[in-house]
From TrEMBL:
Keywords: Hydrolase. GO terms for molecular function: cysteine-type deubiquitinase activity. This is Putative ubiquitinyl hydrolase 1. It comes from Rosa chinensis. PANTHER family: ANKYRIN REPEAT-CONTAINING PROTEIN-RELATED, TRAF-LIKE FAMILY PROTEIN. Gene3D superfamilies: Apoptosis, Tumor Necrosis Factor Receptor Associated Protein 2, Chain A. InterPro entries: MATH/TRAF_dom (IPR002083), TRAF-like (IPR008974). Residues 22-158, 180-309 form the MATH domain. It comes from the Eukaryota.
Length: 345
């Protein structure tokens, strides 16, 4: 096991161990390797939770907070949410601790500010935490137990005026089989289309989806581009408050040369889909390019759209913050590594 320093260090973090899980919230991440690719810039934000009569969320940077030039460390912050409804002169003094589960020993490494016991949250400072919570080298060392089978568990305790609340949590769980679904949609009589046009529902990852095409564009692409979006189709079977973590890509077939068009600089898009939400590209292809006969995108007044959809995971509420939750037990029964490769094309 790596030699972890539990004393005050230059980053101002005081470390200790606890056998008790975090009182107010926990985030179980079963796809860390994917997050380190996807959330390297802005960090992953948890859902909101309540403690001390206020709303909070955790923001997790899997490879350091790039905005603060942090590298090779885990960055973790407590952020106050819903502050727009508060008076402009509000101040909230908080005593908080952040948690990281040691899955080998079943206890938690606890992080506190070594310089001040209580933090004052106000309009100019709505977040507090640790730029260098723990070196990435220590975090990924399997012997330390923080990252096991691509999974880690973080948590938080937040005390305002010494108030305690019943703990809640969320689980970002991977699908057992994240197979790729390719759906081909032939759009006929294209010249007669005016407003948005939807495909028939198709299934990917056990959920129903549909493609929405704007032949004359929408938003900043209106009048100049074709716009494409992916939506969850009705009936939606997601549990309340749940979100799907989805990787997707659109293509339009060149029917002459049998090639595909997609933005030259685009990677696969990763988005959270929930009830009633859709994601896509307002400027997928210029209308001028799309209509050129030699390009083959529009032939016999028809085009062929392909959607490649992979449902990687689901974020859902936990009934308790204990690592013995059903979500955690499912992980231990399926220790298969989640992420093997990413299509960079």
């Amino acid at each position: 096991m790596a030699n972890l320093n539990l004393e005050k260090d230059v980053s101002g973090v005081l470390r200790s161990f606890s056998d008790s899980p975090p009182t107010h919230y926990s985030v179980e991440i079963q796809l860390f390797s994917l997050l380190i690719e996807t959330y390297s810039e802005n960090g992953y934000e948890s859902k909101e939770f309540e403690a001390g009569g206020y709303k909070w969320k955790l923001v997790f940077h899997p490879n350091g907070n790039k905005k603060k030039n942090v590298k090779d460390h885990i960055s973790l912050y407590l952020v106050m949410a819903g502050t727009d409804s508060l008076d402009s002169s509000w101040e909230v003094y908080v005593d908080f601790r952040l948690f990281l589960l040691d899955q080998n020993k079943g206890n938690y490494l606890v992080f506190e500010d070594a310089l001040t016991k209580k933090k004052c949250f106000h309009g100019a400072m709505r977040s507090a935490g640790f730029d260098k919570l723990i070196p990435l080298e220590d975090f990924t060392d399997v012997s330390n137990g923080f990252l096991v089978d691509d999974t880690c568990v973080f948590g938080a305790e937040v005390f305002v005026c010494k108030e305690r609340r019943t703990g809640k949590g969320e689980c970002l769980a991977r699908m057992k089989e994240a197979s790729v679904c390719k759906h081909v949609w032939k759009v006929e009589k294209f010249s007669s289309l005016d407003a948005a046009y939807e495909s028939e529902p198709f299934t990917a990852g056990g959920y129903n989806w549909k493609i929405k095409l704007y032949p004359k564009g929408c938003g900043e692409g209106k009048g100049s581009h074709l716009s494409l979006f992916l939506y969850l189709a009705s009936p939606i079977t997601l549990p309340p408050g749940s979100e799907l973590f989805v990787e997707y890509r659109f293509r339009i077939l060149d029917q002459i040369h049998h090639q595909h068009h997609h933005p030259s600089s685009a990677k696969n898009w990763f988005r959270h889909f929930r009830d009633g939400t859709g994601w896509g590209c307002r400027k997928f292809i210029e209308q001028e390019t799309f209509g050129q006969v030699d390009k083959g995108f529009l032939k016999n007044d028809a085009c062929i759209v392909e959607a490649e959809v992979t449902v990687h995971g689901i974020s859902k509420a936990l009934s308790q913050t204990s690592p013995q939750s059903q979500c955690f037990k499912t992980l231990r029964r399926t220790p298969k590594r989640f992420w093997e490769s990413l299509d960079k094309a």
